[in-house]
What does this fold into?
Amino acid sequence: MATATCTAFRGVLESAGERVGQRVLLERVGFLAELSRELTSALVAARWDEDSLDVLAAGVDGRGEALPSKGWMAMRRLNWPQAVPSPAGVHVSDRVRRGAQEYAARTLRLALHRRSIVAAVLATWPADPGRRTEAEWTALRAELPAGVTGAEIRNRTRQVRAYLAEHGRLPAGLCALEGPPQMAGQVLLAAMDRQQVTLARVDTVTARLRVKLPLHAAPATGREWAWHVIDIRLPATIAPDAVLHTPTLRPTPTGRIAVDLPHSRPAAVTKATGHMVALGFDWGLNTLLTGTLGRLTGEGKSRRVLTDGRPLIFDATDLSAKLHRLRGHREHLAAKRDHHQALADGLSSPNPAWGEHLQRVGVLDAEHERVCARIRHLNAATAWSAARWAVDQAVALGASVIYLEDLATLEARGHRKGNARLSGQVRGIVAAAMRHLAARTGIAVVAVPARGTSKRCPNCLQRLTHHPAPDRLHERGWKWAYCAGCRLSMDRDHAAARRIVSRGLLAQTHTTTDRATGVRSIRTIVEGTVAVVRRPKKTTRRLRRQRHAEQTPPRTYGPKATPVKGHPTPTRPAGTHDRGTRRATEQAPGHKTSRRMPDVRTVPATIPATGAVQRPAGHDTTTPAAFRPVPGHGVPAPHRTEEDLPRSGQVRLSHRTCRRRTRAAERTGFHHLHTTEVHPLTPRFGPPDGNRSRPRRARKAWKPQAHTEF
It folds into this structure.
């Protein structure tokens, strides 16, 4: 099941057959959304008390029968809607009331979870709310429901402390601690039947929605409601065989009609246990995801996790910096808007500056909303790109499960430089998108405990120390880790990814599944070491030739031949045997040109009319073709003279190229996202010569001694 947000631009009034523009359609959808919001707010406010929440939490009606799962039906079984009168002089059909009652029931049921946390905190209120003792934490955990995170406990504790400081006493419960929640202007069409809404699929890219909308803000009779036909353009994310469900309508502040269209398609059921190959991903600050592959071997107490040592990187450094700049710009706009609003509040209407301040407030508010929309769009695009990349990696490597560290308890404490970026990342969207995309391919996504994953060594479980990274040798930081016990020196996120995949594979029998959301998690920590299995090096050309020579019987006739070239090596002219250089030599007339020395035209062409000598197009009469650079990336500019070139005739290749940016844009859609290739998987660490002791950033500082263009 997934939800795709579409936009309704225009419709058709079915009775008159005339087209309805976007402005008129937005106005009529707004009338219906406002009626639904008023009915829902009145119903929630009337039942926002401890007794009503107790009845709803019991799950039975007055006759002792279980309440149905549909919210509007449960509300009617409890006879709660009868106590809320309808708006005076407004005709509202029973189907519209169903949608409002469904919205109210969902809101009250969500409040039951917060109510249970507040009740547990109040029942075990500590002597010092700022620091609980071990016994107080044990008593609190015994009262809390399953699945409550530490962030929720701290947030509710702060809320109770603020109430205690203001009133001098503890609150009686959730209803006394906070008021009824605010309702949004939206219409839940899923609770209505064919008398109010119908949905049909026209073709693979179009769906037709028929909905009855009010023609006025306060329709007095049923004649002021009319059927409207709206054609919805389906996005590419909805498969042609997907089943469409009744959507939700909501007008947006930008003047659009958002249609939240649920759709479902059958997917394979993923298993919770029995996994042998897994991927573990660690969250990072600039590197959003750092993963590694793990394989479970052995049985019983001899089980261990093996890894190939290759990190998988989704680097969003540039995009993270851009989002951080946008957040700073948003806060600056909000501060200026509040400042002008305060100045306007201190002035009266006759003052000419009063209108200027209000006008400035409107401009800043609109700009603030645009920046917020930009941040939301970038966050969503980055999250889905990272999730799709992670699932593609799992499919390419044959993994059946993805393990993520559970960072639901992450909070921005103090004033550290990275706290704002760390808290502002889109981990929730990434995890939800990863679960959705992995379910299509039959891959499970499980959350594991995050405590201590970046603190201890994956090989010997000793405490890691801060160490200067190869690209920052002048300072010690959190980026690089070093273990004094086993001499492990590697990126800290990569080391944490190894521990995450080890915790997941070794404790997969403790996997629990939430019945309401289907989210799987592991709360039991099983420590284990990770052994690195080195990959066999690829055979070089020299080794392949030696193996072929050993397996091939010697020939007693003709010159020596190899399967790589397929013909004998010709004799090179004198002066061309120096390794790394090739000097231009003049060829005698009739000399046979070798494969490595292409023929060079030295005779110029003449123009018949004037007899002038002209160089043939595409050929250089002064420099052999073998040594002439080809225009494009990695060659000197055409305006360079021969004196600028090295004396030996070599041409240095330029290191400034846009190939990396082009490949990154092809994979992720962003020029500033750099990820590990899905296939083949290239290691992150080490210069091109195969030395893997330095990271990718150190590779930039490494330069070869000489490059020769052949």
